[in-house]
Every structure is written in C-alpha cells, then in structure tokens.
C-alpha cells in the first residue's frame, strides 16, 4: 500500500558513501541539470485480438504538461499488420521520478496508409493512466480497458514497465597521471581532476571532482564511486570531458589541460586505450613543438549494480498512506473565509491542496486504495471529549477511506461535526501508524504518514521520542505546515541538519521531511504547478528513506511475478 533510494542521483558524487568530500575545491550542485531517478522501458501489448484482428494497429503515446495540461506526442510504436502478433516491438523509454505525477495517454489507430498524419487514420480508442500506476501495479504490469468509442468494446491493453539496467549501475574508478605540467613557482603542481558529462544541447555539467594531491606531477588519486546516470545519463557513447587543474589556495586554480572519453571507452578497463594525452588548447595553438601537458591513465574500472526502489515495488512491496489533519482552534472557524479550514465552494483550502498533491502520487503504489484518515486536536460529539487520534469517517474500528477523494469527503464531513480545540499533539498519530508498521517488518509493506498542521507543536518531547522509536520501523513522516505560524520546531524534527534525538538516543534513520505550505503559494494563482512542486519536494526523500530501512535490515526485494505471456491461439481449419 505504500513506501521508497532518494532517487539515485540526488546525492551523487560530491563525496557521499564514504568517499572524500572536496570542500577545498569548492562545492558544486550535481543537480544543476536534473538527473532522472531512473529510466523505465514501457512495453505495450494488445490483449483482445478479436477487436484488432481486421486492423493494422499503431500505438501513440502522449505525455501531459503540468501547467497548461497540454498533451504532447512522446512517441509511436510500429504498425502491426492484421495483428498477427499483438505485442508491439518498439518500446517507450521514459525518465521516472517517484515524486512526480506523469500523466500518460495511449491512443490506438488503424493505419490505412503511409501518411504520418493521424487524422487520416481510423481511431480505435485510448487508455489513460499515470506512470506511477504502471510501476505500482503488481509486477509493474497494468491491464486496462481501451475506451473512447461510445457503445463499443475497444479491447484491453497491457503496459509493462521495466527499469533499465544501466540506471542502477555505479562505477568505481581510479586514475593516475604522469609528467603533468609544472604550474607552481616554488614547487611542483597540486593536481586534481574535474569530470563533466555532456548534455543534449552540447553543454557540459560537472559531475565529479577528485581530491587534490599536493606537490607532485605524477599523482595517484583515490578510487571514487559515481552512478552511471550522473556520469553519462545512461548513454554509453555520450562524451565525458575531464579537466586537469593545479589547485591554488585562493581558488584561482590553474588549468593544466583536458581530454575526452566515454563510458564505453572507460569500460575497457586498464589498457592502452585508456591512457589519455592531456591537451592544453592555448599552448597547442602557440607552440609548434607542443606534444601534451602530461598523460592520465585509468588504473581500474569496476561496475557495481545496486538494488533500486523499483526492484522492491516490482517485487510487491506496498506503500501504505495515512493522513493526519490538525483540527485545533488556531486554524480559525471553518465557516469564516479567514480560516485555514474554510470550505470554499470554488477552490480547495490549503489542507485540501496539500492532501491532494501528495496523496494523488502515493496512491498509485497502494493496490487497494484504502487510506486511514485521522484527525487530532478536536472535541468529538456527542460528549465533547478531546481526541488526538480520531477517524475522520467517524468509524474508529475502520478509519479507511476509499481513494484520495474519499479522504477529502471524510475531512469535509468532520469539519461539520467536530469542534476545533487543542492542543497540537503529534505523538498519538505517529504512534498509531508505528503500531501497524511494527507488525510488518519483512519488507512487504512501508508506511508513509502525512501530517498537515497549522501550528506550534505542544508535545515536543513525546513527538521526538515517537520519531526516534519509529526510525527503526518501515515508515516515513511528511509534515506540511500551513498558515503564517513560525515552524522552527518542525525544522528540528526534520533532522536534515542535526539528527533528532530523545533521552540521549539518536534516530536510526532520518525519516521526517517538513515543508511550509506558504513557500509554494503561487502569486499568479496557478496552484497546479505550485502543488506539483510541493509534492516533488516532500516526496523526493522517501525512496532513499525506504531503501535505508531495507539496507539496515538486510531485506532483499522479492522476485517479481513471472512476465505476462499471451495465450497461444491454435488456428483450426475446416476441411
């Protein structure tokens, strides 16, 4: 029902994972050109042969822009003549981010001529879904009816997602250099290497810096690890540019020279092919007898394949989503437009927007789409007792709501029946989810709790203790702060700067992500884009939190169910 590596590539090569961080050479943002969390290959099969038996079908895939909702063609399969084989051979390769909602549309046409213009061909129907829906289905295999022609059965389509192998590979490399140019007046040089991957537009993005080796023209750098995505975005033939510099204390590092290579070349390992001449173009232009500014040699190249978040999802791990909403009096009277809980008939309030933005993405990873929805800080009918853990649907034995729309409905119904009160206590709802998470520690389920709150927390000590205890369990906590309050305490719970502790015990993992809603309010009123940004920021850390739990516990992904094979039709001929 729910769960998840910080999409790999979010942290890469600045020096995590036990490799030296090079603050002395200046930090850089590996994500200046965003690396996809991973790439997936989509295969399309038509199930109901009878529907397509007399046609020559083609599948056209469209993706939807977040802002203006415009559909753009992403690609086309080949045409299948008379559906002799219902499986399209041509695949679609897409970037996948857990934290983004990618709407897809598959259109099917009967191709009658060679014209690429779709309006000249018969429309056979279409199927809508999200990329998360495909990935989150059992075995990452989604089966859905084709719709679009009123009164006609249009058949069924199966879309299967397969993570591309290169996306989970990392390489461990080591380099040395010989006879580099001497740059320092009083000594030799202090060399270091800077690696850049090339982008589609021909520009370069920095992806790794080695450490500095002091006072030598023949340095041997430490081995370093980098993901194949960060190094070349999974494209083995893409140019990788390596620059050699002489480090200077004031930051004005001297350029020694550069060379280019590719992942494919590097993968040959230590050989004569991986000894590179370091060329300084300025020197080469000025000096007729210039040969090079030294050589750089690859000493070792080792590929490591890492288990990914999608391996677990494909193996059947469910992500269970629970929402907890703040019903304290500081939110203001729900019938007043100034209230954070105001039920505006024309647009969602901040609570509704945050819930929908996060929930609509997570629900794709929960097979039964049943979500517990809780409230805290209200007085309940009939006796007015204060509760910090009540079911929004009024049924404490079964607090589950169907889909995000069901959660929204229960939330609005609660606003009409409970009295906003206080104080703001988080520990009861965290402990509620922790009880469930403690009962399934085998990796088959992972729990995500979304807390939406307006205020300063009243039970800080108890909440810290709850989080420290929960950090040993398969769960993550997202906190969205709405309204104008100061959220300093929430930053402390987030634990990004200082790991949270309680009674001298530190949290085993960082499991809390906090964001203030006000940072995402779009002044132009375009809530679609701003809510997509909010979801992206709060969900981006969940894959890494998920994987850190699995790694610490030594839990491996379950094998995926066997791939779908279409039934073999035996043709019978009448004599």
Automatic annotation (TrEMBL):
CDD domains in UniProt: C2A_Copine, C2B_Copine, vWA_copine_like
Gene Ontology terms, MF aspect: calcium-dependent phospholipid binding; metal ion binding
Keyword hit for Phosphoprotein: yes
SMART domains in the cross-refs: C2, VWA
Superkingdom, natural source: Eukaryota
Domain C2 residues, every copy: 16-144, 153-276
Pfam families registered for this protein in UniProt: C2, Copine
One GO term of the biological process aspect: cellular response to calcium ion
InterPro entries tied to this protein: C2_dom (IPR000008), C2_domain_sf (IPR035892), C2B_Copine (IPR037768), Copine (IPR045052), Copine_C (IPR010734), VWF_A (IPR002035), vWFA_dom_sf (IPR036465)
GO cellular component: plasma membrane
Domain called VWFA: residue spans: 320-521
Key words, A-Z: Calcium, Metal-binding, Phosphoprotein, Repeat
Family, per entry: Belongs to the copine family.
PANTHER family: COPINE, COPINE-8
Function noted in UniProt: Probable calcium-dependent phospholipid-binding protein that may play a role in calcium-mediated intracellular processes.
Protein name per UniProt: Copine-8
Originating organism: Dromas ardeola
Source taxonomy: Eukaryota, Metazoa, Chordata, Craniata, Vertebrata
């Amino acid at each position: 029902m729910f769960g998840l590596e910080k999409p790999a590539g979010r942290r890469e090569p600045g020096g995590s994972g036990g490799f030296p961080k090079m603050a002395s050479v200046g930090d850089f943002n590996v994500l200046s050109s965003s690396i996809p969390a991973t790439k997936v290959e989509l295969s399309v099969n038509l199930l109901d042969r009878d529907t397509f038996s007399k046609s020559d079908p083609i599948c056209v895939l469209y993706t939807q822009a977040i802002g203006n909702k415009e559909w753009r063609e992403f690609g086309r399969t080949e045409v299948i003549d008379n559906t002799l084989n219902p499986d399209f051979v041509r695949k679609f390769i897409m970037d996948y981010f857990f934290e983004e909602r990618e709407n897809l549309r598959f259109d099917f046409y009967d191709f009658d001529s060679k014209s690429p213009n779709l309006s000249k061909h018969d429309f056979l129907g279409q199927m809508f879904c999200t990329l998360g829906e495909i990935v989150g289905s059992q075995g990452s295999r989604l089966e859905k009816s084709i719709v679009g022609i009123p009164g006609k059965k249009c058949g069924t389509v199966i879309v299967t997602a397969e993570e591309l192998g290169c996306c989970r590979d990392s390489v461990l490399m080591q380099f040395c250099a010989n006879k580099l140019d001497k740059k320092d007046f009083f000594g030799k040089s202090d060399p270091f290497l800077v690696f850049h991957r090339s982008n589609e537009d021909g520009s370069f993005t920095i992806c790794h810096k080695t450490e500095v080796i002091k006072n030598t023209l023949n340095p041997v750098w430490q081995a370093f690890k980098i993901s194949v995505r960060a190094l070349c975005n999974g494209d083995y033939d893409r140019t990788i540019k390596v620059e050699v510099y002489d480090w200077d204390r004031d930051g004005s590092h001297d350029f020694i020279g550069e060379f280019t290579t590719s992942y494919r070349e590097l993968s040959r390992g230590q050989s004569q092919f991986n000894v590179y001449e370091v060329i300084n173009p300025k020197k080469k232009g000025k000096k007729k007898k210039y040969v090079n500014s030294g050589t750089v040699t690859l000493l070792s190249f080792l590929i490591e394949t890492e288990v990914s978040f999608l391996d677990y999802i494909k193996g059947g791990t469910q992500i269970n989503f629970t929402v907890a909403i703040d019903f304290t009096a500081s939110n203001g009277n729900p019938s007043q437009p100034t209230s954070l809980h105001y039920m505006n008939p024309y647009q969602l309030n901040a609570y509704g927007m945050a819930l929908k933005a996060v929930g609509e993405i997570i629900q794709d990873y929960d097979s039964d789409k049943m979500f517990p929805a809780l409230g805290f800080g209200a007085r309940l009918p009939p006796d007015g007792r204060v509760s910090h853990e009540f079911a929004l649907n009024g049924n404490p034995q079964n607090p589950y709501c169907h889909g995000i729309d069901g959660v929204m409905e229960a939330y609005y119904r609660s606003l009409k029946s409970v009295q906003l009160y206080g104080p703001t206590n988080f520990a009861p709802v965290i402990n509620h989810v922790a009880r469930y998470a403690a009962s399934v520690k085998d990796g088959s389920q992972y729990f995500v709790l979304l807390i939406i709150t307006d205020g300063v927390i009243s039970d800080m000590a108890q909440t810290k203790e709850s989080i420290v205890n929960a950090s040993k369990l398969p769960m993550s906590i997202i906190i969205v702060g709405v309204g104008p309050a100061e959220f300093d305490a929430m930053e402390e719970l987030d634990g990004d700067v200082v790991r949270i502790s309680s009674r001298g015990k530190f949290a085993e993992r960082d499991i809390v992500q906090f964001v203030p809603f006000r940072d995402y309010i779009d002044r132009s009123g375009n809530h679609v884009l701003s809510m997509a940004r909010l979801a992206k920021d709060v969900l981006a850390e969940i894959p890494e939190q998920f994987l850190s739990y699995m790694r610490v516990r030594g839990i491996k992904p379950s094998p995926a169910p066997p791939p779908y094979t279409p039934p073999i039709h035996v043709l019978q001929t009448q004599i």
